[in-house]
Amino acid sequence: MTQTQYYVPLNVSYEVDVWGRLRRGVQAARAESEASEAELRTVQLSLTADGATYYFGIRGLDAELAVLDSTLLARRQSLALTNARFTAGVDNEIAVRRAETELATVEASLFEAQRQRKGLEAALATVTGQTASAFTLAPRRGPLNAPQVPASVPAALLTTRPDLLQAERLLAATDSRLDAARLARLPTLLLNGFIGPQAADLRDLPRISDNYTYYLGGGISIPVFNGGRLRANQQIAQARYDAQAAEYRQRALVAFKEVETALADVQQTAAQLAAQQRALTAARQAGRLTLERYRRGLADYFQVVDADRITLNAARQRVQTQANQLRYTVQLVRALGGNWE
């Protein structure tokens, strides 16, 4: 007599992680996720540093425009004085034309600085997610004061640098992948089975609640015929680990170089500013003395022009160096991963 039995099995299979291969795979996935988070922080830091660089560039141009505005006023007064002396027959037309030339030269420099400011303003609008036409930054003619930077910073700060953290997490992930590839060559312990309702009539299956069939078993899988493929996978994982280790060492060297360069730039710029301040003070004093001698008829206008030009160049170089000092400070913060504290 033939009897037909129907059942609906629920198959279950479980691999016992005897050697830790699956655990290493989970660790690799977690490290890769952390590397992705570090990559996001790298992009955020880069955008923030770019925005700060553009902002301080604009403020540097504001300071330079203030110098040019005051120089433009002095050039107009000088032109008026020269015209008056020419009308009185004290000076010649050459002095008038030189005064007009110097005035036009300052005006051209003023327009060029305004053009550069517009370009930096548009760049700042881009990194802040706004259109250039809808973004404006009001001028500020205040002093450019850079923060006090320590003479040295601890190397441990580099551990917070996101691109270096990303490289370290990727190295940890490839190390876990390498271990998983090595452990894949070892025997695997598998547990499997099934459970489900059983009935003689197919229509009774949904109503059966106490007649179940089940099976539980296990076995060991030994990769005999896949040994070559698994060995090749391990060699590939080893090559990836070596490449990632080299990438991590290279990023670490670049990070140290960037920090040392930025620190040197900040420190040297401070010394440069002190020298430029002395030069500017002396140039202004020489300019006042030369102008006084010109008014008394003891010097010609060419000496006044040279003195004024030296003073203007010294003033512009000073504010440009101050802007560079702020830019170098931003580069230092960026090289340290966001802060030096």
Automatic annotation (TrEMBL):
Gene3D superfamilies: Outer membrane efflux proteins (OEP). GO terms for cellular component: plasma membrane. GO terms for molecular function: efflux transmembrane transporter activity. Residues 96-123 form a coiled coil. Keywords: Coiled coil, Lipoprotein, Membrane, Palmitate, Transmembrane, Transmembrane beta strand. It is a lipid-anchor. It is found in: Cell membrane. SUPFAM superfamilies: Outer membrane efflux proteins (OEP). Its main location: membrane. Pfam families: OEP. NCBIfam families: outer_NodT (TIGR01845). Belongs to the outer membrane factor (OMF) (TC 1.B.17) family. This is Efflux transporter outer membrane subunit. It comes from Hymenobacter qilianensis.
